[in-house]
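Much of our argument rests on the idea that a fold can be written as discrete symbols. In the encoding step, the backbone of a single protein was reduced to a row of integers, each denoting a local shape. This step matters because it turns folding into a mapping between discrete strings. For completeness, the protein is quoted in full, as a sequence line and a line of structure tokens:
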Amino acid sequence: MTAHLSHLPAAEPYAVSLGIDRFLYDEAALLDEGRYQEWLALLTDDIRYFAPQAEFSNNADPSLDYIGAHHFDEDRRALENRVEWLDSGLNHSEIPPSLKTRLISNIRVLEWRGGEAKVGSNFLIFQARWDGSSALFAGRRVDMLRGEPGTWRLASRIVYLSMPVLPRSLTLFF
């Protein structure tokens, strides 16, 4: 079933996968609940958090994602700044905080390299605002998780949104 993990002992892929599933579900709960400082603790110091813009073209070249247009391209300091802004009370688009519900699915370990796991997953996020407006974000993610004693930490995330135009400004994390 998991040819990409075939070098591990028979039970190991399931144990690795179960720990990764739990990590991603716990991360989703932190983000839905607005517990951003706790979420930051899950990130490595060298994190890259990136979302290329979707391109609808017969000749789209995904190898250009890293140099083309993007929705965001953030390192740890930029993410800390965004969390500070969200927590400041000065972000009028999030006063009161929007309600968020996210579903994380189709989690699969794509590659395993000595303590790091490349993980693919899909997401669906519903965001409701106090004024009755709402937005739906859908897409897939490719994460690099770094194993540490007893846990995982997010070392990179590439977010592929399934829409070329966003329904509203981005005040949430994927």
Residues 12-32 form the longest helix (21 residues). The radius of gyration is 17 Å. The longest strand covers residues 99-113. DSSP finds three helices and six strands in the chain.
